[in-house]
Amino acid sequence: MLSKSCEYAIRAVLYLSINSTEDNKISIKTIAAELKIPASFLSKILQKLVKYKLIFSSKGNTGGFYVDEQINRQPIIAIVEIIDGLKSFQKCSMGLKQCSHKKPCALHNSFQKSRNEMLNTLKKTSIMEMSFNVTSGFASI
After folding, report:
1. Strands (E), 1-141
2. pLDDT for the residue numbered 111
3. 4-85+126-135 maps to which CATH number?
4. Is there a contact between 57 and 63 (Cβ–Cβ < 8 Å)?
5. Are 115 and 101 in contact (CB under 8 A)?
6. Where are the domains of the chain?
7. What is the 3 state secondary structure string of 34-47?
8. Which end of the chain is more exposed for a tag (fewer CB within 10 A), N or C?
9. Model confidence at 8, in pLDDT bands (50, 70, 90)?
């Protein structure tokens, strides 16, 4: 349901949440190497997140990317909305243009419940919560 760009964005933001501060910025090369993501692809994703103020960046010798406490409180859906938009939660699972609750495709009713559950989870789960799961060893990025 999420694009590869969105998956990379979530992983990168979680990495920054765990490892960065305003005084400890992380370079694109470090993030890309640690997460095994192509640096040029990741750079475009992170610049988009900077543009929408979901992460911060600075240039220079001590430059790099970082997040702060306020960003850590944001729900994961904020990342999804910037990278993929929310239309992915409304698109037909089979790619039909005329799929709706009134005229559903063969998968519509089966997928609608799980799609809504995923959307609700992304809305109620903060970056900080997911970062805690990673640092506690309950999850990985």
Report:
1. 56-58, 64-66
2. 83
3. 1.10.10.10
4. yes
5. no
6. 4-85+126-135
7. HHCCCHHHHHHHHH
8. N
9. very high
